[in-house]
Amino acid sequence: FRMHRILTAEPSPLPFDPASTALVIIDMQRDFLEPGGFGESLGNDVSLLSAAVPPAKALLLAARAARLLVVHTREGHRPDLSDAPPSKLERGEPTARIGAPGPMGRILIRGEPGHDIIPELKPQDGEPVIDKPGKGAFYATELAEVLQARNIATLIVCGVTTEVCVHTTVREGNDRGYRCVVVGDACGSYIPEFHAAGLAMIKAQGGIFGWVSTSDDVIAALS
Ligand code: TIU
């Protein structure tokens, strides 16, 4: 057992202790990754997210083997939509709005099939699942309490989408004092140039709000 390990990352190597590190998997839900859900209702080609699944699965298996805390998040709302602000419900010109019926149940609603995490990344017993009404995983959730209870200092973050929920969560985490490292190939976006720019923004200016690494480098550091 090595107390301190070094993760290869940009803009600089990141020392970390597995005992105080969590893998946070953002919103790998059918609603974003499969046709007929929220992502497609916004006009997106959801197949653009599928490349992130094998690296995220490999990361999940490595994190479990290294006994990291694994946290899964899901974006979604109460069936009565009481936790969804009108500004979110009314936004844009979607083909179907949040709460509307779709092939995977009501769009972005807790308890519906589309709200589930994809089968490849199904949470195990003992892995907290954080339900979040917003884009950031800290806003209006128990995430801070879950991390504090385990004395977590470093967050290894992956999921979808890079520039929306991953970015918002990392910005929130950075301001709360967590060292946040984003695993680029285990993230995905409907807009490839935003994925690339999103990763570049994090690590620019000396790592202005985090680090960027790869699934291979994280797995090597954990093994
Ligand atoms: N999880 C997440 O990123 N939610 C979004 O709405 N992302 C989009 O890119 N639309």
TrEMBL record:
It comes from the Bacteria. Residues 21-216 form the Isochorismatase-like domain. This is Isochorismatase-like domain-containing protein. It comes from Methylobacterium brachythecii. The keyword rRNA processing does not apply. Pfam families: Isochorismatase. The keyword Hydrolase applies. Keywords: Hydrolase. Residues 77-105 are annotated as: Disordered. SUPFAM superfamilies: Isochorismatase-like hydrolases.
